[in-house]
Amino acid sequence: MITLSLVGIGSGNPEHLTLEAVRKLQGADVILLPRKGAEKTALADLRRHIATEMLSPAPRVVEFDYPKRDADTPEYTDGVTAWHDAIAAIWAELIARHVRDGGRVALMVWGDPALYDSTLRIADRVIARGLEMRIDVVPGITSLSMLTSAHAIPLNTLAGAVQITTGRNLRAAGWPEGAETLAVMLDGECSFQCLPPEGIHIWWGAYVGMAQQITLSGPLSKMAPEIVDTRARARAENGWIMDIYILRKGAN
């Protein structure tokens, strides 16, 4: 049976690879390496660096282009489902072509495969296509862990609960009832602007774990315009951006 290892590689710093991650990548027959467009070449470059410079001997690397999601699909989930099906078709074809007879294939996953990442769902679609395959998951340091480390803060208050959500959910429903701390991911719209800012503290970070890391924090009422401006400038300078933030009510 083919083994597909989904290996979390952290948030952009090769030093954050675990020994298990290195071992699983090292033991792969083939590493599949996605290219996600010219604006995100830095992400592919990091994966290439790991595969060719940190592994010895380096496994064979097969690069492929990611299909783009149709942003015009009326229902967001329908568009994402179609996109995942297209990616699964590419994976299935590459795995069938390059890995046979119980071979081992690996994919490097930004952050961790279990936290707001669709790699595991796509892998299930590959199996549903009839490919006999075992899924092997290696956890990675998440952008959320990197954010709390960068700001030197605990994620939760004493005995407090945390809700992890997306910018889309924040815009659609506002602050979740009963929540004290929110961790907001996948937000390209700076959705914290939709909230009444009084009494909310924000800890924001972009490119967390990478050389160009940027962090800002303070009362949301004061920091919101600065974060919006900083984010726009960083995206223009780098051609892409990944950011994440924590919101907390009643924080000093």
TrEMBL record:
GO terms for biological process: cobalamin biosynthetic process; methylation. Residues 3-223 form the Tetrapyrrole methylase domain. Keywords: Cobalamin biosynthesis, Methyltransferase, S-adenosyl-L-methionine, Transferase. It comes from the Bacteria. Pathway: Cofactor biosynthesis; adenosylcobalamin biosynthesis. It is an enzyme of class 2 (transferase). GO terms for molecular function: precorrin-6A synthase (deacetylating) activity. It catalyses: precorrin-5 + S-adenosyl-L-methionine + H2O = precorrin-6A + acetate + S-adenosyl-L-homocysteine + 2 H(+). InterPro entries: 4pyrrol_Mease (IPR000878), 4pyrrol_Methylase_sf (IPR035996), 4pyrrole_Mease_sub1 (IPR014777), 4pyrrole_Mease_sub2 (IPR014776), CobF (IPR012797). Its EC number is 2.1.1.152. This is Precorrin-6A synthase [deacetylating].
